[in-house]
Design goal:
The chain is globular, with a radius of gyration of 19 Å. By secondary structure, it is of the alpha/beta class. Helices cover 29% and strands 15% of the residues. It is built from 9 helices and 9 strands. The chain has helices at 10-19, 29-41, 52-61, 111-120, 167-171, 218-234, 243-250, 259-262, 286-293; strands spanning 71-75, 78-82, 99-104, 130-132, 148-150, 173-178, 200-207, 210-214, 268-271. The protein folds into 2 domains: 10-61, PGBD-like superfamily/PGBD (Muramoyl-pentapeptide Carboxypeptidase, domain 1, Orthogonal Bundle), CATH 1.10.101.10; 71-293, Peptidoglycan recognition protein-like (Lysozyme-like), CATH 3.40.80. The protein has a 7-stranded mixed beta sheet with strand order 1-2-5-4-6-3-9, sandwiched between helices. It has a two-stranded antiparallel sheet with strand order 7-8.
């Protein structure tokens, strides 16, 4: 979606509200000037057009994090922040969860803004129950690193797998999105944002055509481990079946497409890459594999 001078509608109103200017829903010269000023102040291309990179930066800076009081600790040192989607943006269920899926957002570091995006889009109930925050790829913001957010009630679900061989698996799975930009090209994300050097990882062998990736942080991996162990207890899922069993046999190749996962024949824990050949979440970062093998 592009917004430029002449655009109108709710998206323009929300943009104007985020920029702190008069929100009349019409993208005129004043809105263009405000966008250009924002782009200039945030080292973006100054063209007055709100494309994917500018929109992502504005959303990241304006996350709604107004329910931080809803915090609980269900397992050892694990802290969960409740930030619930509106009804209608998820399926209430309840369904018994028999699979745990690991995803990442291919986006920015703020988990609350990820939830806000799901609440505002027009795709319906597309979401995961949990989102895990990370570090900004720019290297200038780590306040959400390792912060775990729950955005729909236990027993509910959102559409998160896309096309696969088992509708039952889709409705009987719980999932988490890890804030991460996925693969890198020449040290930049797919929206051309340079990635801080300490957040780049080069894999020993390319995965899905890419050697360079935006790294999962130490805090993300630590929180993810506690999260997986908690979900294993909460939903009685054997998280050592599926991906972990495959890593023990094939190493990094375990993250590739798997017919058993695609068709839902093996229950347990998988990644999105196991069910889709066109996805990149998760990738076999060595530290991530070591954590999974430690479960």
């Amino acid at each position: 979606m592009l917004m430029r001078e002449g655009s109108r509608g709710q998206e323009v109103t929300e943009l104007q509200q985020a920029l702190g200017i008069d929100a009349d829903g019409a993208f005129g010269p004043g809105t263009r000037a405000a966008v250009e000023a924002y782009q200039r102040d945030n080292d973006l291309v100054v063209d007055g057009i709100v494309g994917p990179q500018t929109l992502a930066a504005i959303r990241e800076a304006n996350a709604t994090t107004d329910n931080s009081e809803k915090v609980y600790s269900p397992y050892e040192d694990l802290v969960v922040n409740k930030y619930m989607l509106p009804k209608g943006e998820y399926k209430e269920g309840p369904t018994k969860k028999e699979y745990l899926f690991l995803h990442h957002t291919a986006g920015w570091n703020n988990p609350y803004k990820t939830v806000d995006g799901w609440a505002k889009d027009d795709r319906g109930a597309v979401a995961t129950e949990f989102v895990l925050g990370g570090c900004s790829v720019r290297g200038n913001d780590d306040r959400y690193d390792g912060e775990l957010v729950q955005c729909l009630p236990e027993g509910g679900y959102g559409w998160h797998l896309g096309k696969n061989g088992s509708q039952y698996m889709h409705t009987h799975s719980v999932a988490i999105e890890i804030c991460n930009f996925s693969y890198a090209v020449d040290g930049k994300t797919y929206v051309n944002t340079p990635i801080a050097a300490d957040q780049l990882v080069t894999l020993p062998d390319p995965f899905r055509g890419h050697s360079q990736w935006h790294a999962y942080s130490d805090k993300q991996i630590t929180t993810l481990r506690l999260f997986i162990l908690w979900l294993a207890e909460r939903d009685s899922i054997d998280v050592r079946d599926g991906l972990v069993a495959e890593i023990k046999q094939t190493g990094a190749k375990a993250f590739e497409f798997n017919e058993e996962a695609y068709n839902g024949r093996t229950k347990g824990m998988w990644t999105h890459t196991n069910t889709r050949q066109d996805k990149f979440d998760l990738f076999p970062q060595p530290e991530m594999m070591d954590m999974l093998l430690s479960l």
